[in-house]
Protein backbone atom coordinates (compact mmCIF):
# COMPACT_ATOMS: atom_id res chain seq x y z
CA UNK A 1 0.00 0.00 0.00
CA UNK A 2 1.63 3.30 -1.02
CA UNK A 3 1.56 6.27 1.36
CA UNK A 4 2.39 9.52 -0.42
CA UNK A 5 4.75 11.72 1.59
CA UNK A 6 6.01 14.27 -0.95
CA UNK A 7 9.60 15.48 -0.56
CA UNK A 8 12.55 13.07 -0.47
CA UNK A 9 13.84 14.39 2.87
CA UNK A 10 10.46 13.96 4.61
CA UNK A 11 10.14 10.50 3.11
CA UNK A 12 13.53 9.42 4.43
CA UNK A 13 12.83 10.89 7.87
CA UNK A 14 9.45 9.11 8.00
CA UNK A 15 11.01 5.85 6.79
CA UNK A 16 13.72 6.07 9.47
CA UNK A 17 11.14 6.65 12.22
CA UNK A 18 9.22 3.59 11.05
CA UNK A 19 12.38 1.48 10.89
CA UNK A 20 13.60 2.62 14.30
CA UNK A 21 10.22 1.59 15.73
CA UNK A 22 10.16 -1.88 14.20
CA UNK A 23 8.08 -1.24 11.08
CA UNK A 24 9.72 -2.29 7.82
CA UNK A 25 8.70 -0.33 4.71
CA UNK A 26 10.35 0.88 1.52
CA UNK A 27 11.08 4.53 0.73
CA UNK A 28 10.42 5.28 -2.95
CA UNK A 29 12.02 8.53 -4.11
CA UNK A 30 12.90 10.27 -7.36
CA UNK A 31 13.90 9.26 -9.97
CA UNK A 32 11.69 6.20 -9.33
CA UNK A 33 8.80 8.65 -8.89
CA UNK A 34 8.48 12.26 -10.07
CA UNK A 35 10.08 14.92 -7.81
CA UNK A 36 7.78 15.88 -4.95
CA UNK A 37 5.87 12.60 -5.11
CA UNK A 38 8.04 10.38 -2.91
CA UNK A 39 6.22 7.71 -0.98
CA UNK A 40 6.46 4.88 1.49
CA UNK A 41 5.44 1.47 0.20
CA UNK A 42 4.13 -1.02 2.71
CA UNK A 43 3.21 -4.68 2.42
CA UNK A 44 0.85 -6.71 4.55
CA UNK A 45 -0.01 -10.38 4.82
CA UNK A 46 -3.07 -12.27 5.97
CA UNK A 47 -0.98 -13.60 8.85
CA UNK A 48 -0.63 -10.15 10.42
CA UNK A 49 -2.83 -9.93 13.51
CA UNK A 50 -5.18 -7.08 14.38
CA UNK A 51 -2.83 -6.20 17.24
CA UNK A 52 0.15 -5.99 14.89
CA UNK A 53 -1.80 -3.77 12.51
CA UNK A 54 -2.86 -1.52 15.39
CA UNK A 55 0.81 -1.18 16.39
CA UNK A 56 1.81 -0.30 12.82
CA UNK A 57 -0.89 2.37 12.66
CA UNK A 58 0.27 3.76 16.00
CA UNK A 59 3.87 3.96 14.77
CA UNK A 60 2.70 5.66 11.55
CA UNK A 61 0.78 8.25 13.56
CA UNK A 62 3.68 8.97 15.93
CA UNK A 63 6.19 9.21 13.07
CA UNK A 64 3.93 11.46 11.02
CA UNK A 65 3.40 13.83 13.91
CA UNK A 66 7.10 13.85 14.81
CA UNK A 67 8.19 14.97 11.36
CA UNK A 68 5.19 17.25 10.84
CA UNK A 69 3.31 15.57 8.01
CA UNK A 70 0.26 14.87 10.17
TrEMBL record:
Q: Which residues form the Aminotransferase class I/classII large domain?
A: 5-59
Xref: SUPFAM superfamilies: PLP-dependent transferases
Which Pfam families does the UniProt entry name for this protein? Answer: Aminotran_1_2
InterPro entries recorded: Aminotransferase_I/II_large, PyrdxlP-dep_Trfase, PyrdxlP-dep_Trfase_small
GO MF entry, a single one: pyridoxal phosphate binding
Q: Return the protein name.
A: Aminotransferase class I/classII large domain-containing protein
Amino acid sequence: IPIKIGENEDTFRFWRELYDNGVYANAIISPAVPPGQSLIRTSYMATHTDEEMDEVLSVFEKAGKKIGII
